[in-house]
Amino acid sequence: MSLFHGNLLVRFNAGFLMLASAGGLFTDIAGSFFGRGPEAILLGDAPGTGIGFIEAHGLALIIGVTLWRIAYSRSWHAFLAAVHVLLGTANLLFWQFFIAADVLVVGYVTTAAHFLFAVAHLAALAGSARLAAQSSH
């Protein structure tokens, strides 16, 4: 993968993380503190459980902003693949939350995006490694 395309993938990923996590944080805060939105049903009897939602979406936002601003390196592909495997797997393991909050479309879209980004970053990493090996010969 060329430097341009690798950087474009990282930037596109950063944009996705910023947008999706900001929406998640808004929903987390509304459900945790105001009893509003789709998470209200999940957090109504135990609002303290919202800490996990807020931490996860807050960290995703921090990662997105950081990656938007940082210089490109092919090592970011491994980092981002790991981030998306973690987030996508967490979505699958806790799929019941999407059902209970009646936000299945959000679950389908974000989970698919996480695994698509993981595959794209692994492919970019493999392609970069192949190019580096060829240029060293």
Beta-strand percentage range? under 5%
* Extended strand count: 0
User: What general outline do the C-alpha atoms trace?
Assistant: elongated
Structural class: mainly alpha
Number of helices: 6
Biggest pleated-sheet summary: none
Fraction of helical residues: over 70%
Low-confidence stretches: none
Write down the secondary-structure element order: HHHHHH
Rounded Rg:
17 Å
* End-to-end gap: 18 Å
How does this model look, in words?
It is a single chain. The longest helix has 32 residues. Helix 1 runs antiparallel to helix 3, helix 1 packs antiparallel against helix 6 and helix 4 packs antiparallel against helix 6. 82% of the residues lie in helices and 0% in strands. The chain is an all-alpha fold and 137 residues long. The mean pLDDT is 91.
